[in-house]
What does this fold into?
Amino acid sequence: MSKPFFAEVIGTFILVFFGCGAAVFMGDEIGMLGISFAFGLAIVAAAYSVGNISGAHLNPAVSLGVLLAGKMESSAFVTYVIAQIIGAIVAAFALLMIANGQPSYDIAVTGLGQNLYGPGTAGEYGLTSALLFEGIATFLFVTVILGATQANAPAMMAGLAIGLTLAAIHMVGIIITGVSVNPARSIGPAIFAGGQALSDLWVFIVAPLVGGALAGVIFKMGLTSAEDA
It folds into this structure.
């Protein structure tokens, strides 16, 4: 097992365990703002722990953006995506095992931090809103990542900038979709939650990948890159 592969597994585990765990165990106490910061702080933790090994993508949409920006080989992209999905699934399983230790826990009621939209969800936003939010938010997120990690950017600040951006995205969008901007983060909980989470999953795969791809292409064109300036 290569070091970058293992780093992406661990990093994505950190993201899902902290972020979704905050929603599952502490959602009523810390609310949407607290969950937003949990996801953001998880990115910071992962970035400064495994970032020097793999770049801490933790997200297939990020890896796709990096690939299309010309900063990653296609073989590495496949390896990263597999690692990210594994990390998310293992983290979701760990959360489920912990949650099952509470007699009153019911995954159908409390959930597992899965992404949803439509009737019965917090904001009851429709499909168009979900697609637009996830696509736009992922585009902005990957644009920040590519900009914060380019050669002439202050390297020590990248993890903080990226983490705060993810927290801000959650502050805007938790009520819309629960915020994915990351297919792996959505796949992990959906596998165990089933039902609507699985039927809606395509939205949280397609929209983030489109947003990440667009960010990568625009960076490659030089419109958001300062590297040749």
Q: What stands out?
A: The chain has one domain: 3-220. The CA atoms of residues 4 and 52 lie 9 Å apart.
